[in-house]
Specification:
The chain is an alpha+beta fold. The longest helix has 17 residues.
Length: 148
Amino acid sequence: DILSGHYRGSIVGPEFVQARSFALAIKNTYFAHGWDQLQFEVSYTATMHYLGLGMETMGRTDTELASKCVIDFKITSATTDKQFAALIAHMKYDDQIWHYGNLAQVPKRYILPYSTKRKCCLGLVSMPNNDTNTFWQEAIMKFGNVPA
């Protein structure tokens, strides 16, 4: 919300100070140029299909560059890119960003982590743009319906 200009909460307290530091680090590290081209918090609804089944889904991207990429921001205690890579697998961030990329219909997907311990952004993580995703296929098989 701070990055998008939608923040309306209190500006006192440690949570705001930390969030503001994160927001400024992201903006200054990666988006010093082209900030005005980003779209924040775009909401989507869609029907995902697999093997004749359909499942309604929703999602909201943190930010996107129209027709090019989605970027998901993560706050982490990881201090290295290697530690954060392990978190991507453990927390299933790859499934989340795959879904966001498909909702936005963009070819590129990124995760941008901010380390609360190092007080800086870690490396921008480029995620694969695969045609299929096992997590979502299994979800559709479990919760999907035959379209009317």
